Amino acid sequence: MEFQKTPGWLDWYDGPSKPRFKVPAGSVDAHCHVFGPGAEFPYAPERKYTPCDASKQQLYALRDHLGFARNVVVQATCHGADNRAMVDALVHSSGKARGVATVKRSVTDDELKAMHDAGVRGVRFNFVKRLVDFTPKDELIEIANRINKLGWHVVIYFEAVDLPELWDFFTALPTTVVVDHMGRPDVNKPVDGPEFELFVKFMREHSNVWSKVSCPERLSVKGPPALNGEQNAYRDVVPFARRIVETFPDRVLWGTDWPHPNLKDHMPDDGLLVDFIPHIAVTAELQQKLLVDNPMRLYWPEES
Ligand SMILES: O=C(O)/C=C(\CC(=O)C(=O)O)C(=O)O
Q1: Among 212, 214, 216, 233, which residue's Cα sits nearest to residue 224?
Q2: Could you report the per-residue pLDDT of 159-186, keeping only the tens digit for each?
Q3: What residue segments make up the domains of the chain, in order of their start?
Q4: Where, by residue number, does the polypeptide cross the bilayer (predicted)?
Q5: How far apart are the C-alpha atoms of 178 and 273, rounded to whole Å?
Q6: What is the mean pLDDT of residues 235-241?
């Protein structure tokens, strides 16, 4: 089946630079995706975008190029609750990839077990309205209670403006909760203003809540972009990510977000995204926690 990319789609950056920053041995890219290939793993009819293909082979080649050792492959909304492409990536990773799935309440216990055996360790609840339709909270709570029994966690993706209305639901989740991209703060607002203070409060008052300090390329307003050798990219995002890393050093994760769905302005050079890390985790100890200790404890506890 042929799929037409969403008009204006930006493909992932071809030929990323070699990072100057050497990530610690055993580093984990804790947020990335595979897309199809559509001919083998069709995109979901309910999707809100149609991406380029981005295969497990290309993901793992990027992992090696950037100096990472492992991946956490997150189900992208273009595949809906059809986790086959993501699971296929896990089973072809020689144990070096874990996954986060999207499931409906109709998922069977056998399907959950098969996903666990393949390396899935969490489910993702997406509240970004441009990406998904509404799912009733009772269905999400039912799913959270079921996967909690497997020792899985819940990844949540939402926009900062929606945190107040989602607060009660999020703080009632029984599992570890991992927030994608710091809950997408508006970096035009002060890092100590009410909007980001609420997010910091969310993490401070709930020790089961973690955050990915990823996707500066999505959040930055002033740039500069991670292109043409830029070693100080996305400066307006740094204070937000630094604050989370330094306040909650044991509950942060980092990921490339390759192949970077739905970027409109530019496509970052993934090598320069890696060079962004020392600006937000400024010591070797913080880098070790962010890139190795924390993701290993969450996704490979049996090895950490
Ligand atoms: O890749 C991300 O983390 C961000 C996305 C895409 C996404 O979440 C998805 O399709 O599942 C976005 O903001 O469009």
Answers
A1: 233
A2: 999 999 999 999 999 999 999 999 999 9
A3: 28-299
A4: none
A5: 21
A6: 98
Q: Residue 247's CB: how many other CB atoms inside 10 A? A: 12
pTM given for the model: 0.98
Identify the three-state secondary structure at position 69. coil
Residue 35: enclosing H or E segment and its boundaries? none
Q: What are phi and psi for residue 122, nearest 5 degrees?
A: -165, 165
Residue 154, helix vs strand vs coil: strand
3-state helix, strand and coil shares in percent for the chain, rounded to the nearest 5: 35, 10, 50
* 140 contacts 175 by C-beta, under 8 angstroms: no
C-alpha R_g of the chain: 18
- Cα of 74 from ligand 1 centre, angstroms: 9
The residues that are catalytic are 257
The CATH H-level superfamily of 28-299 is Metal-dependent hydrolases (3.20.20.140)
CB atoms within 10 A of CB 282: 14
Angle between helices 56-66 and 84-91 (to 10 degrees): 50
* Nearest ligand 1 atom, CA 74: 11
ipTM: 0.98
Distance set, CA 40 to CA 1, 11, 55, 149, 299 (Å): 9, 19, 10, 32, 27
Give the residue, by CA position, lying nearest to ligand 1 atom 5: 261
